[in-house]
Design brief:
The structure holds two protein chains of two kinds.
Chain A: H1 21-34, H2 42-55, H3 59-71, H4 76-96, H5 98-108
Helix pairs in contact in A: 2-3, 2-4
Chain B: H1 19-25, E1 38-41, H2 68-80, E2 85-88, H3 99-108, E3 112-117, H4 130-136, E4 140-144, H5 150-157, H6 161-174, E5 186-190, H7 201-216, E6 222-225, H8 232-240, H9 244-253, H10 257-261, E7 268-271, E8 277-278, H11 281-286, H12 303-307, H13 318-321
Parallel strand pairs in B: 1-2, 1-7, 2-3, 3-4, 4-5, 5-6
Antiparallel strand pairs in B: 7-8
Classes of the chains: A mainly alpha, B alpha/beta.
């Protein structure tokens, strides 16, 4: 089936560097540094990435950070909780805009 | 399900970079032994469990088992050599009628004995006093426990295995196993629940220690992480879900020359239930004997030649050289 998203394309990510090698190098050095153990563990960073992957709904990132989370020692329960955090923030982000709606509504409903 | 007993590499495997090429590129070809520190007899394929990832294809219906004669030959070799460690594996080696006799004979030779123990076999008929036997003979136990959650363990090893394993660990703790750093050694083995590499050994060991203590008041000495080998039942499973190529590519991408330098086959000799010699238990399951001029049978044992033999390698070796490496003693490279 034809699709914009093909799992095999994930392995081609580095090919992007062919058209802008300096920018790619800067990106990949920074990306590598971001995921190194620091104040947060590699496992915690992989779980954050997994949650963000769901929030931005990137299939490549979901693929990569599901594997990374397992390889950093997270279990499916922890990973699903991370997905719920992403979902809660997305849902909450929609809901909190209800305040905007109420502000506008207050302004319009003068009586 | 078919059970693999011989080399199972297929045309499909030609697409991958040969392991020997990876060794060559990192200046490690040919890979040679550095001596024999560990003598690892495989007692055969009989087991009370039939785990999904088992590279041996072991199970309750398997008939292959090591004979008394082969074990006597092993003892003769041990007497004539100074190999310090005997690492007994299977199947469930305890189910072999010569197991206890062999352990006692090896102890008489003042060698360290390790047994790869599945924890549940002590609940089989006639095995009730197994923990006491282990204690009396100061056997180091290397026990399979792929995770600290029931769902993960039972999915891989069979329904009810987790709860039996917890009971077994409590019995072993009660005898003093796993309680002191220098006491009776109780080590656990983690392997991934699927087609991914093991996590950091120290990080997952800390998780196991915290969770097993908190949930079940169970203690142990060390946790070893071991990667799933793309052979036997695990390969069948990967192929069934169309994930074999992906897993192989993952292993190949994670090839680490430092892990290759420290692979266990360099100081281990594996002995088949039928008296054949192998560089490791995985080669044994693939029917890949010691070769390159080294003897391939116990009856032809020659320590000098075997000490510096060239290791027989194949695509599956990527399983031991990925990331921080994998061996019967866990990761081989410091994180």
């Amino acid at each position: 089936m034809e699709s914009y998203y093909n799992p095999k394309d994930l392995a081609k990510f580095a090919d992007i560097g062919e058209d802008a090698p300096e920018l790619w190098k800067k990106f990949s050095d920074w990306y590598g540094a971001v995921f190194k153990e620091g104040a947060l563990s590699e496992r915690e960073k992989a779980l954050i990435a997994l949650a963000v992957a769901h929030a931005i709904q990137c299939p490549y990132c979901i693929d990569a950070y599901t594997q990374a989370s397992l390889e950093k020692g997270s279990n499916p329960e922890q990973m699903m909780e991370a997905v719920h955090v992403a979902a809660a923030i997305r849902g909450g982000a929609s809901l909190v805009h209800g305040v905007q709606m109420r502000n506008v509504e207050d302004k319009l409903n003068m009586m | 399900m078919k059970e693999h007993d011989v080399s199972e590499f297929s045309e499909q495997d030609n697409q991958f970079k040969a392991f020997e090429t990876a060794l060559e590129e990192s200046g490690l070809y040919p890979l040679t032994a550095t001596g024999i520190e560990i003598f690892q007899p495989n007692f055969g394929k009989l087991c009370n469990q039939a785990c999904k990832h088992c590279h041996v294809g072991a199970g309750p219906d398997r008939k292959e088992k090591i004979s008394r004669k082969t074990l006597e030959d092993c003892l003769f070799i041990l007497k004539e050599s100074r190999i310090p460690v005997v690492d007994i594996t299977g199947g469930a080696p305890e189910l072999n009628e010569h197991f206890r006799w062999f352990v006692q004979e090896v102890k008489q030779l003042n060698r360290h004995v390790m047994v790869r123990h599945n924890l549940t076999v002590m609940f089989e008929p006639g095995q009730e006093d197994l923990p006491e036997f282990f204690k009396d003979n100061e056997v180091e136990l290397i026990c399979s426990l792929p995770y600290y959650l029931e769902r993960s363990v039972d999915r891989q090893r069979g329904t009810g295995v987790f709860n039996k394993s917890m009971q077994a660990l409590k019995r072993l703790n009660a005898l003093g196993y796993g309680m002191e750093e220098n006491g009776l050694q109780l080590n656990l083995v983690y392997n991934p629940g699927g087609a991914f590499l093991p996590p950091s050994q120290s990080a997952i060991e800390a998780d196991f220690k915290r969770e097993l203590d908190h949930r079940y008041q169970i203690r142990f000495n060390h946790l070893f992480t071991i990667a799933n080998m793309p052979i036997g039942r695990f390969r069948d499973l990967l192929e069934k879900i169309d994930n074999y190529d992906c897993y192989m590519n993952r292993l190949i991408a994670a090839y680490n020359p430092e892990a290759a330098k420290a692979v266990m086959c360099r100081d281990t000799l594996s002995i088949g239930w039928d008296g054949r010699l192998y560089d490791c238990d995985f080669n044994q399951m693939l029917g890949m004997n010691c070769n390159h001029g080294a003897p391939s049978r116990l009856s032809e044992f020659d320590l000098k030649t075997l000490n510096s033999r060239q290791i027989v390698t194949g695509l599956h070796c990527y399983g031991c050289t990925a990331g921080v490496g994998s061996s019967c003693g866990g990761a081989v490279v410091e994180e």
